[in-house]
Amino acid sequence: MKLDLFDDMEGLILHERENSMGAMEMKLNISNNGNDSVSRFPAKTPLAMAYVPFQQWGETYGDDEALSKGTLFPELDLPFSGGGDSR
Amino acid sequence: MNEQKMLLSKIKKYDFTLKELNLYLDTHPNCRRGLAMFQKYRKLRENAVDEYTRKFGPLTPDQVNNSERWTWTDDPWPWERR
């Protein structure tokens, strides 16, 4: 643990502010483009909670590709790349 | 691939796309783009199923529209298809 970080209170506060601004920008930028009023994340995201982003309408595969990929949405095309012995 | 197989594979693709849209719309019931795509594929599927049943017989028993003969049990059975 980097204890010297706590000595630099100003730096710490700046760091915190950057983080929250990042979250804010994320909320604003990812506007919904599918005429759905639900945003990607809730307006308030308390710490220590896990969030699943709410899907926004985007690109879609053609029916041919969708069936072979196993999803209609490229955003959800997340092939499992782990597995085996991870050591 | 013969015509029957091609039609069947088309129906499978439409079915999958419709199921995906079904799941999406369950959580996004007001998404017009999703709804439009659903309607488009519903129509495509309907046409493909019509064509299939006209040419190759029913895919499900409720599609038997023959008042002379119960065509549901006609050969070939799914496991007999080549």
Brief overview:
Chain A has 87 residues and is mainly alpha-helical.
Can you walk through the features of this model?
The complex is a heterodimer of chains A (87) and B (82). Chain A is mainly alpha-helical. Chain A contains two helices and no strands. Chain A has one domain (7-76). Chain A has helices spanning 9-29, 63-69. Chain A is flat and about 40 Å long. Chain B is mostly helical and 82 residues long. In chain B, α1 packs antiparallel against α2. The longest helix of chain B is centred in the first third of the chain and has 25 residues, at 3-27. Chain B is elongated. At the A-B interface, α2 of A face α1 and α2 of B.
Q: What labels would you give this structure?
A:
heterodimer, A: 87 residues, mainly alpha, 32% helix, B: 82 residues, 2 helices
Describe the SSE topology.
The complex is a heterodimer of chains A (87) and B (82).
Chain A: H1 9-29, H2 63-69
Chain B: H1 3-27, H2 32-56
Helix pairs in contact in B: 1-2
Oligomeric grouping of the chains:
heterodimer
- Report the principal-axis shape of chain B: elongated
**How many structural domains are formed by the residues of chain A?**
1
Order of helices and strands of chain B: HH
> Tally the helices of chain A: what do you get?
2
Strand runs of chain B, count? 0
